[in-house]
Hints:
Blueprint: H1 2-6, H2 11-23, H3 27-40, H4 45-61, H5 65-78, H6 83-95, H7 99-112, H8 117-129, H9 133-146, H10 151-163, H11 167-180, H12 187-202
Amino acid sequence: RKAIEFKPTFSEAYYTIAIILSNAEEYDEAIKELNKAIECDPYNFEAIRDSMYQLGIIYTELRKLDDAEIQFKKLIDFDSKYAEAHYNLGFIYSLKGKLMLTLQKYKDTIAIDPNHYHAILGLGNIYYAQGKAQEAIDEYQKAIKINPDDINLLKTIGSAYQQVGRISDAIASYSSYLILSSSNFERDEIMDLIEELKAKIAN
């Protein structure tokens, strides 16, 4: 607050206050501070972009999906190369059940940032839900290279491998899942599945 008193156009101070308020779940006050950060200095590109992004995140947290959609669209208009804006707009579309718009936004995200893990994973999940197992595998393999320790992904790609008849790859993925998983949840089921798949290969 003292920084703002000294310099009323100090966007970063408003933004910092907003983050503190947001972490305390005082969202209405955080939104006010973010709007001040956006308005007080029209030449501070990063502060405006970060504040617009945080507004979208808060609206998402509050499940004000229409407001979040509007905010991320504004952010894309402001900075069309900001991958997180495209990804989060895609996430909002997914929450609204707008599958094709989600798909496009994830593709837009990857076009900007080819190693955006969540967009790649999201794209794979859409293909998997559509029954496009091979397309899903292609995306999951990219995601695994970025984050090889995602145990849920290892299980999912194992299932996708099964669907396309790649039994050895499925066994390898499930085995990696067992090695990395620290939970007993589903462990016996996965072990039984591996044995069933090994029996198929043996026959």
